């Protein structure tokens, strides 16, 4: 009758030591009667001095394995650490933030990317932005960004992907502007592996990057603030409404409407409510 033998813990042992360990495991799994024929007696060699056999744990039987009802549900499984995003956006993301070690593609209205940078740096983490010389630093600061935690590389040279790969070693978030170019899949996979190994998050924008775990897109859906009636369309804009769509390999597409509104000397994010005068954004 076949005997199940655990092969873990054999790395680093000599051939003779492995044989001795396997004999003990076979003996414990199959009983005394099966121990002798499992390995020829001529193969038994005493272990060298100083070697210590690994601590063995018994393999659970079918009766000891947890049933489907006993296995942890998706809500009970440990989640990956994430980088924070604006609170109104977090409800649309499957893990409530940008998972560390992942690649996320962001497109559309710049407020979305600016809000992510603000949330990450305001939480005490560090970020870098590569190849985006027109990034709105004033808007980021109004959203709460801590600019001393933000590194800027407006002109990364001929290989911005390599610059991003280097910065993934020491930063929490790296934003890479591709300038309309496409990154080959083989190159993208190497950078994804680096981000995963370092526990950093890479956000790519303004280009093509196949294999991103999440794709976030935003468009301006309207403005709040101008007067109504005879004054409709006049006055100061107090808020911008964004339509946001989230797609991913393991989730169904999600959509939401968010509001980026002035609040005192700063800017706040919230979920859109159908109240107050709204001016619809003109299509470009």
* Biggest sheet details: 10 strands, mixed
Number of helices: 7
According to DSSP, the number of beta strands is 14
SSE-based structural type? alpha/beta
Report how far apart the termini are.
73 Å
- Point out poorly predicted stretches: 32-57, 275-284
Based on CA atoms alone, the radius of gyration comes out at 28 Å
- Gross geometry: elongated
The ordered string of helix (H) and strand (E) elements is HHEHEEHEHEHEEHEEEEEEE
**Beta strand %:** 25-35%
Overall pLDDT, averaged?
A: 79
Helix share bin: 10-25%
How does this model look, in words?
There is one protein chain. The chain contains seven helices and 14 strands. The chain has about 280 residues and is α/β, with parallel strands linked by helices. The strands form three sheets. Strands 3, 4, 5, 6, 8, 10, 11, 12, 13 and 14 form a ten-stranded mixed beta sheet that branches. Strands 1-2 form a two-stranded antiparallel ribbon. The radius of gyration is 28 Å and the shape is elongated. The C terminus is likely disordered.
